[in-house]
Amino acid sequence: MKLNEKGLLVVISGPSGVGKGTVRRALFELPNHHLEYSISMTTRPPRTGEVDGEDYYFVDRKTFEKMIEENKFLEWAEFVGNYYGTPKEIIEEKIAQGKEVVLEIEVEGALQIRKQIKDAVFIFIVPPGKKALYDRLTKRGTESDEKIRERINKAEKEFLLAHKYDYIVVNDEVTNAAERIMAIIRAEHAKTQRSIHNYLKMLEED
Ligand code: 5GP
């Protein structure tokens, strides 16, 4: 898939428990942007307060596996016993329309996209320290000890993948992290290779 001149695919990722979801929500609350969030599909049961079609599309394993077979995901991964995936068709449509689409996904899926879409922007969110990450994973309170241990093991391996990303954003404070991501998105728009075609076209039309 090739991004058109205006479209931008922003992949926000990072180790489990780093607060990607919270930072992504804060990003969307910032003023003056036209970002669109790509709603993922998952087989994880909804948490209290989560809404189908807003937080995720919640489906059963059979439905998800059928979609894998039919090649309907841009990427997908099995994460701590559940499937998560990005529905391909919606993303392709939005990018074709020149929209700025934000994905918030775990690292395995992010690296699948890295291989397919060369001009997407990859942002790795990191915690201010390991202790902050462990505290978050333990205090979430919605999961069994075994699941928490699984998430910690996974996070330790994921830390080592930072070098595969274009940018690293420290989640020291949620609003700061969101503002740093917004600054990256704005800077990406101004990059010569993205903006020169529009600029030359404008000169021609002048
Ligand atoms: P949670 O169960 O806490 O909502 O999400 C678990 C992990 O799955 C998080 O790291 C989240 O970013 C990731 N995730 C959410 N949607 C997707 C997706 O579509 N694809 C992939 N690969 N990971 C996802």
Which CATH class of the domain at 8-38 and 99-205?
A: Alpha Beta
**Class computed from helices, strands and strand pairing:** alpha/beta
Instruction: Estimate the helix proportion, in percent.
Output: 40-55%
Q: Identify the bound ligands.
A: guanosine-5'-monophosphate
- How many helices? The count is 8
Give average pLDDT, whole number.
90
Overall number of strands? 9
In short:
45% of the residues lie in helices and 20% in strands.
What does this structure look like?
The mean pLDDT is 90. Helix 1 (20-29) packs across helix 7 (174-190). The chain has helices spanning 20-29, 61-69, 88-96, 107-116, 130-139, 145-158, 174-190, 192-205; strands spanning 8-13, 35-37, 41-42, 57-58, 73-79, 82-87, 100-104, 121-126, 167-170. The strands form two sheets. Strands 2-7-1-8-9 form a five-stranded parallel sheet, sandwiched between helices. The radius of gyration is 18 Å and the shape is globular. A hairpin with a 2-residue loop joins strand 5 and strand 6. The protein has 206 residues and is an alpha/beta fold. The chain has a domain at 8-38 and 99-205: Rossmann fold (3-Layer(aba) Sandwich). It contains eight helices and nine strands. 45% of the residues lie in helices and 20% in strands. It binds guanosine-5'-monophosphate (5GP). Guanosine-5'-monophosphate binds at residues 16, 20, 40, 44, 75, 77, 79, 84-86, 104-106, 108-109.
Give the SSE layout.
Elements lengths: L7 E6 L6 H10 L5 E3 L3 E2 L14 E2 L2 H9 L3 E7 L2 E6 H9 L3 E5 L2 H10 L4 E6 L3 H10 L5 H14 L8 E4 L3 H17 L1 H14 L1
Parallel strand pairs: 1-7, 1-8, 2-7, 3-4, 8-9
Antiparallel strand pairs: 3-6, 5-6
Helix pairs in contact: 1-7
Bound molecules: guanosine-5'-monophosphate (5GP).
